Structures are given as structure tokens and as C-alpha cells.
Amino acid sequence: MLRLGTTVLGVADVERAMRFWSEALGLVEDPEWASETWRTLAHPGGAHALGLMRSESPAEPKPRLHLDLYTDTADEQRAEVERLIGLGAQRVDWKHYPPEPDFVVLADPDDNLFCVVDLSNAPSGG
After folding, report:
1. Is the dihedral of CA 10, 12, 15, 21 positive or negative?
2. Structure confidence by residue, pLDDT tens digits, 43-73
3. For the chain, how long is the longest CA-to-CA vector?
């Protein structure tokens, strides 16, 4: 039976990405398949959460696939955005926001875009 496995992000610096995403999401490295070009991050209970693969191609400016990270309130969203920026994320000048967005677009240290969503304000329009 086919099932969805690990979401994988292409990154230029596997070690840097591992540090960022581990801190951002409270994940731990699963050393089973660790290599110079690959890391698997897992929830502390053991379930795989995110794969990091070295990539030679640049991050997409408007990716078709991205991560949404959820918060429950606008205050939590603001606090998490600031925490992630402190870890190395960057604000993105996103020109595609709907009129009253429930999400903030950030870029990780490898310029992969992701969103921090305030579920109390969801869904976004458009």
C-alpha cells in the first residue's frame, strides 16, 4: 500500500538547515541515514517529520509546494515569527498576500519559503 513519506527540502548547507529546522520545530536528528548530503529530522517520539537534502538548484521565488507552520492565535503567530527570525529566517516581501492574510511568509536560511499561519484567522481568502 502506498503512503506519504517524508517531506524533503532542498538546501545548500545541510548542517545549517538541520540546526535551523531542529530549533524551529523541536525536531531531533535521526542518524540512521545521515550523510554529507542528507539528514532526517524526527519528532522526539521517533516519527520522521522532515528530510533535508543538499541541492545545487536555487530556491524557487514562488514555490508550488511549501511548508505551513500553524499557530493558534495572532499573538502566538507574531511571537513565532520573531523567534524564527532570531533563528535565521528572513521576512519575505510577498506581493501575493490576500487582503486580510492569516499567514506570514518567511524564508529559511536557504531561501526556502514557508508560512506561519494563524489558525484563529483562517482560512485566508485566495
Report:
1. negative
2. 998 899 999 999 999 999 999 999 999 999 9
3. 45
All residues at 6 or more sequence positions from 51 whose CB lies less than 8 Å from its CB, including other chains: 6, 7, 8, 9, 38, 39, 40, 41
CA dihedral 22, 25, 31, 37 (to 10 degrees): -60
Q: What angle do CA 73, 82, 16 make, to 5 degrees?
A: 120
Amino acid at site 66: H
Cα distances (angstroms) measured from residue 44 to each of 17, 41, 87? 18, 9, 20
Q: Which pTM value belongs to this model?
A: 0.90
Tell me the Ramachandran region of residue 35: left when phi exceeds 0, alpha when psi lies from -120 to 50, beta otherwise.
Answer: beta
Question: 114: which strand partners?
Answer: 67, 106
Which amino acid is it at 52? L
Which letter does DSSP use for residue 13 in this model?
-
- Residues 87-107: pLDDT tens digits? 999 999 999 999 889 999 999
As a whole number, the mean pLDDT across the chain is 93
